[in-house]
Amino acid sequence: MNKSNIGSRFDDFLSEVGIYEEVVDLAFKKVIAFQIQQEMEKKHIKKIEMAEKMETSRSTLDRLLDPENAAINLSTIQKAASVLGKRVEIKLV
Hints:
Layout: H1 6-16, H2 20-42, H3 47-54, H4 58-65, H5 74-83
Helix pairs in contact: 3-4
């Protein structure tokens, strides 16, 4: 078996069963949530402090940090990144 084609076959499978976009969105959200949580821990920033610095509610921050909740907007991600001294890069490939 040629392992170099496994990724594309899996993508094809997800497309065939009609869940490719959903899986990619959820994976993206999990990575973002994980990275933000890691930076908060690294910088010793608690959730309430993070929400205040983002000028948002604690519930909005909780949604951002929830890896299962893919419904979050880009401006919220950008605010979090800015508070953490980071920036967001998005590429079309």
